[in-house]
Inverse folding.
């Protein structure tokens, strides 16, 4: 039996069919966007009944569920996808490590619906007017678009997602070459510092392939460096392991004469060196007496007596480098000689129970009291050496 349709009915029929196809296209494109938004590179299939998530993961990797199951109280159906949110995602904890993409529950028309839940085009042409009305109501029930959709904007968004950067893993920059078999948009994290093609890379930097099959040896026009390090790039125009010289710092060149008001040694509250006048150095505001400089002393100084120890044999020659006040024990017969350098010093001698005779040698003049060997006797020996001449004056203290 044939049905004669009016031009209006035929046009309405075409319109309904167009709406049906458009609805299917919109839902299919929305599903594609959802997949691109939430799924990374497919790594393979995953058995959700295994009781644990995939291991040794990198952020943005995805798996397709082939066997339904539940892990960490989250149920997965066949066709779902799981995507890792972080590197080395936990194999037992869902929160903060994984995201579920329920592709198997997507709403919308698919090709397999035609001829079953959706009446086919040929069937409509052969149906009665009543069948046509029923088919119309059924088709309208499949419409799920609840707001205006900009298909051009959706197409542009899909294109942008398709060209987004993809993290491929880590790269050892000390290997001397860039990664191989690359695709534009792929990126690596530097795990070991190094230099390739005269470009230095620090740990945690990124390299990004800007072309397909990027060169493994040439940086320019093949790679882009993303600097993620917090290191100082240059110091005084130098990079790398920098060793500064005086000439590297402006104002401190050997040809310059830096003017410093003062220098704090150790800490600001510690010793301060400053210039009190031309050729004069001050310490904590007090002028210091320098070698070869004449001045008038306005304060006295105390000193520590150097102990020369017990002398019981040989020759004792006091050394002024040990101080201008020294002490010694007469523990046996020995010889006393003048110091080798011009100076003035005092030696405090004390006899012990083994005291012996002290013989002087090399002095120009020896005067004063006689040295004894009596136990516990004490003497002050005043020694003056001037060039080749020397004077020893002995003063008994008992």
């Amino acid at each position: 039996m044939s049905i004669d349709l009016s031009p209006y009915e035929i046009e309405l029929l075409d319109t309904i069919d167009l709406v049906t196809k458009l609805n299917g296209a919109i839902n299919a494109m929305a599903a594609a966007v959802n997949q691109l938004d939430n799924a990374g590179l497919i790594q393979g299939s995953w058995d959700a009944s295994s009781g644990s998530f995939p291991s040794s993961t990198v952020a943005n990797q995805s798996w397709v569920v082939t066997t339904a199951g539940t892990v960490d109280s989250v149920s997965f159906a066949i066709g779902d996808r799981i995507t890792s949110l972080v590197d080395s995602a936990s194999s037992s904890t869902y929160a903060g490590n994984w995201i579920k993409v329920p592709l198997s529950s997507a709403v919308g028309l698919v090709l397999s619906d035609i001829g079953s839940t959706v009446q086919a085009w040929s069937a409509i042409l052969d149906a009665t007017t009543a069948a046509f009305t029923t088919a119309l109501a059924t088709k309208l029930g499949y419409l799920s678009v609840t707001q205006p959709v900009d298909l051009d904007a959706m197409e542009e968004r899909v294109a942008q997602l398709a060209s987004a950067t993809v993290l491929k893993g880590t790269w050892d920059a000390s290997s001397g070459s860039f990664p191989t078999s690359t695709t534009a948009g792929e990126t690596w994290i530097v795990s070991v510092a190094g230099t390739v093609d005269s470009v230095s890379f620090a740990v945690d930097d990124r390299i990004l392939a800007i072309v397909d099959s990027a060169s493994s040896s040439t940086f320019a026009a093949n790679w882009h460096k993303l600097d993620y390090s917090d290191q100082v790039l240059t110091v005084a125009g130098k990079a790398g392991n920098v060793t500064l010289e005086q000439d590297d710092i402006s104002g401190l060149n050997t040809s310059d004469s830096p003017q410093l008001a003062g220098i704090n040694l150790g800490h600001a509250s510690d010793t301060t060196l400053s210039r009190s006048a031309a050729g004069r150095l001050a310490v904590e505001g007090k002028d210091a007496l320098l070698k070869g400089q004449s001045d008038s002393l306005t304060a006295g100084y105390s000193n520590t007596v150097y102990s020369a120890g017990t002398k019981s044999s040989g020759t004792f020659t006091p050394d002024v480098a040990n101080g201008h006040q020294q002490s010694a024990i007469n523990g046996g017969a020995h010889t006393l000689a003048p110091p080798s350098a011009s100076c003035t010093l005092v030696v405090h001698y004390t006899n012990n129970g083994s005291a012996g005779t002290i013989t002087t040698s090399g002095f120009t003049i020896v005067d004063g009291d006689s040295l004894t060997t009596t136990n516990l006797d004490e003497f002050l020996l005043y020694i003056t050496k001037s060039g080749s001449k020397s004077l020893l004056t002995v003063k008994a203290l008992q």
